[in-house]
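job 3f2a | input accepted
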Amino acid sequence: MHRLGPAALGALLRAARGGPRGSAPFSSSSSSSASSSSSSSSVPPQPAIAAKEPFPVELKAGKTYGWCSCGHSKRQPFCDGSHKKAAPGMSSLRFTPQEDGPAWLCGCKRTQNPPYCDGTHNGEAVQGAPLPPRA
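job 3f2a | predicted structure (135 res):
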């Protein structure tokens, strides 16, 4: 199993926000603003592990959803804007399913196929990590 470091994970999430990924049944678009004040030498924020298993959800074709990529949302697996304070520099991943039906959305925030679960949560890096406290 290949494990991503913080820089690679951040790059992956940024790339996922830029367009469709592979054969995933969704299209995505950026939800972040055009302004950027980050330096190329800064390390991208590491997402928190929201859950050690995926979230089963029922999706509607044509509806746009915002998947929480930072792990801090109280509305998991969907974004509630918590990244603005808890993980500046991160944003939600907006996606639009092409078909109605059930889906498994990533809860560990380490998937290589965001927002969909790819089984990464089964690895020791996720299973051995503590979950953040929930209010």
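job 3f2a | Helices lie at 6-18, 83-86, 124-127.
job 3f2a | closed
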